[in-house]
User: Fold these one by one.
Assistant:
Number 1:
Amino acid sequence: MENDSLRSSASSRPGAATIGFFDGVHRGHRYLIEQVREVARARGLASSVVTFPVHPRKVMQASFQPGLLLTRAEKLDLLYKAGIDRCIMLDFTPALSQLSARQFMALLKDRYCIEALVIGYDHRFGHNRAEGFDDYVRYGQELGMEVVLAHAYSCKVEDANGDGQNISSSFIRSLLHQGDVSAAASCLGYDYFLQGTVVGGYHVGRTIGFPTANLKVDCLDKLIPADGVYAVRVVVDGCEYGGMLCIGLRPTLDNGTNRSIEVHIFDFHTDIYNHPMRISFVRRTRSEQKFHSVDELIARLHRDEAEVKNILAQVSGK
């Protein structure tokens, strides 16, 4: 049933935990995690997160494709960076989904020594999510587990209409689908990023003065932001560079139907095929366009380069 990722120093200690998928480990998640840490410190417990390697809805509905903000490894890394002592990674199976809230709490108590459970203000768990906070408190009393209600995260982010939106993984996904990586970063607390390997492309960029590195993303479930041109930061071989990224179908060149992720790295001339690369999104500058000629495309790319360099310089200067 379980596929644990436990820090050895904390794996045998009684813990205070919270439950969730935590895609993005965004600002709201980290606010909840800090409350778990406070509960754990006050009671001498190990701060813990109970999460899942695959989105629970995908297990129950195979066609569901949420578009992940983080891979499993990236999520674990950010959870530990948020200060959690241990992460309990449970395989969400149909059998697990049939457990009642009380049965699930008993599992956490008996198998993982969870003595305090911090419940997100609007979170429900257990089969059909039929029970609520008062039920969790009662089950906790029966099991010898303290149940604590977390405070809601009150910070909101403006959407495209200027309306305040609660920070959530689904809202961040909608922003990335629109290409609004700046607003997504405000919600996440860090720049959205993709990681993968540099692969061969069509080799057209170098013939027009803009050689590119083509990224093959490691995880097929990772959400790719909207097509367009972006100011980005690129990390390759341990060094960071500025870059201009294009996501799309290259309509002007008409050289394929596969969506590509191509980055022109500034002041960079090294062969990096098959090297790992990380791209962090800073700002989208425009949507993908089809130009009347290659010369028109080249002229626009020069303007794009100047704009992207200016954006990166402004961000670096803050």
Number 2:
Amino acid sequence: MNEKHDPENENEKLNPIKETALVEAILYMETDPLDYNTLARISGLSRDVVKKAVEKLEEKYNREDSGVELSRIGGGIMLSAKLEYWNTLKPYYGKKNEIRFSRATLETLSIIAYKQPVTRSEIESMRGVQAVDSVMRLLLEKSFIREVGKKDVPGKPTQYGTTREFLRFFRLESIADLPKLNESEAARFELES
């Protein structure tokens, strides 16, 4: 009577408290945001059960006595320190992930984030400078941007867009969460005709 160990069967027998604890443990172990489908696959629980567990965790972490929160980043969920505690923690934990951006890098990244997909020459035109090669190379190395296709014009220039790493770094769920631009700010991102 040697029965095989079946983790899926075992997980179906978990009660709601243990299901939530299992999802919490997975989020604790992961360093990247996970979507509901991935959480369901790893845990062996149904997507609906995972969603309920995430809701319970959000309630738990939204309390004042919690130093962590569930962050929604790029369509996924991850555990992170609450923003209100980050200034205290940054000297100890932020250095390894800290990236210092030059003004040129921030301008280029902003153009890509707000105007994607965008070509290198369009970026140069909006910034009013030539040769953004070194900035683009840095953003590609840091995985903040990526090639997203070719523009349907003569020469088929490469178009760029932001990545999930960009969303994670700036703690955004999606590009729609970028701050809204006023008219004068938006005008800076328009191409000259």
